[in-house]
Amino acid sequence: MPAASRRRRSAAQDVSANASGLWDDIESESSRRLLLAALAAFHKRGFEAATTREIAEGAGLSPAAVYVHYTAKSDLLYAISEAGHRSVLDEVERALREAPDDPEERVRRFVATFAKWHADHHIVARVIQYELKALPHRQFRRIAELRKRFEELLAAELEAGVRAGAFDVPELQATTLAILSLCIDLARWYHAGEDHKTSGEVGRLYADLVARMILPRA
User: Which of 86, 102, 183, 187 could form a disulfide with 126 if both were Cys (CB 3.0 to 4.6 A apart)?
Assistant: First the structure.
């Protein structure tokens, strides 16, 4: 197999693995293939530069087939964004449900889970973070509501820790955004490999870093 073909196959496998489980509930095989192809195209070229013809070819379909399943290219980006945001929100909410009452441990669980997801799904995360503003206003607002939920969850945990005397957080909103941004930025540089920590190790590292930010100094 030529080197270029091997690279294309490897890239496609990376994208598929990165999106594993995100749209298993979509019954149409063609729709799932289009989402994977769109994810690959948006990741490689950006939303504006990617074309529906490129996406269709990546899915092994005709260009006209895109519009059978999605009315516009932005609908593909919205579907990817919604699936990604709901996936990480589900993970974070599960982590908090299973966490003990200890304020520090609850924030650690939130951060470790949030960071690990962005490492595990770094290709998806990069697209849904950096191409978000390409969405039409109505779709953007729906995703913004999901994103607001992360802020609310983390801010509530930090505030509870402050009330309990466990945390020293003078600026609650700024600290909340700083912690979320720290984890989200993983999408910009992380990839699995021998030169990087595993996603679980990164999650624990980030939980330690955040603990140092919010725990009172001795």
Answer: 187
